[in-house]
Amino acid sequence: MPKSNVIVLLVLRALFIGAAVSALFATAQAQSRVGVAQSIQNNPVGKPPSGVDRVLRVGTDVQANEIISTAADDRAHLVFLDGTTLTIGPSSSMTIDKFVYDPTTQKGELAVNATKGIFRVIGGRISKTAEITVSTPSSTIGIRGGIMIVGVEATQTTSIFVYGNSMTVTANGATQTVTQPGLQVTTIAGSPPGAPTIVVQGSLSAALGNLAGNNAAAAAILSAINTLVANNFDNAAVLASLTSLIQGIINQNAPSTIGTTNTSLSILVIPENPNQTQASPN
After folding, report:
1. Composition of the chain by helix, strand, coil, percent to 5
2. Helices in 161-213 by DSSP H: which ranges?
3. pLDDT tens across 44-101, in order?
4. Beta carbons of 55 and 38 less than 8 angstroms apart
5. DSSP structure string for 88-145
6. What is the CATH number of the domain that holds 183?
7. Per the domain annotation, does 20 fall within a domain?
8. d(CA 72, CA 263)
9. Which of 26, 117, 187, 249 is the most buried (most CB within 10 A)?
10. Within a domain: residue 22?
11. Best CA proximity match to 110, nearest among 95, 94, 96
């Protein structure tokens, strides 16, 4: 083979290998990116699995196995690639344990591990066919096509079913399934989950305000709720009534609770009548 042809083949081979390596690197980056920070208050911190601590800002990519923590005046509102949103309240810490999503089939898996604090999950496309799970020191909570609030302490977890298809709470070999909005399950570490109970009247405003923080986060939450209801239930009347309910709560509380709301589990309760028709997915 002429020398010139050998040189051409070597160059082409080098280019091909380089392109393949670049493609693999790009694929790895794409797979590690699981979502983005949509709204931030103050200075929540993220620690990627192979990086150092960094302050999250609007537009910051979040990765699988990233640890995210907040101080007393911090909040973070994350949006995952399937449309699921996760709000992390003050004095909280959690890890994105697993995120797998196929946009073609719109199926996947999302699991987080929460060690302390207050969190809200609004299920996206994954939650239409599979539970989104939150593991805590006391229990594992799953949500299908809906909204839940989870308060985590070292020895106790309070899980509130706000809206959707169902919420399950599993601990110590037992599972409680909740399908009625406005019920909560309390789990003590080392014990099975307690029976579902109606939450105390008058505290949804405090819980949502504590999570919402500023107006940008409140708007993002409302948008996520709109998308959830429209995609899962396609009922304009339900969407309008739920939107009005949540918007009113946010308008009343978001501006006044920044940095001042008590974050203890005593506020993690829902005031709306659990029997009201507009809160039912059926």
Report:
1. 30, 35, 35
2. 204-212
3. 999 999 888 999 999 999 999 999 999 999 999 999 999 999 999 999 999 999 999 9
4. no
5. E-SS-EEEEEEEEEETTTTEEEEEEEEEEEEEEEE--GGGGTS-EEEE-SS-EEEEES
6. 2.60.120.1440
7. no
8. 9
9. 187
10. no
11. 96
Q: Give the C-alpha separation, 81 to 107, whole Å.
A: 11
Report the C-alpha gap between 169 and 184 in whole angstroms. 10
The total number of structural domains in the chain stands at 1
- Structural domain containing residue 145: 30-279
In 123-253, the DSSP E strands lie at 132-135, 140-144, 147-152, 156-163, 166-171, 174-178, 183-188, 197-198
pTM for the full predicted model:
0.69
Q: Distance between CA 193 and CA 281 in Å, rounded?
A: 24
156 token code pair: 């106790």
List Cβ neighbours of 274 (8 Å cut-off, separation of 6 or more). Answer: 180, 181, 182, 183, 198, 199
Residue 119 forms part of a structural domain: yes
147-161: pLDDT as tens digits: 999 999 999 999 999
Q: Is residue 5 in a domain?
A: no
**How far is it, in rounded angstroms, from Cα 7 to Cα 268?**
70
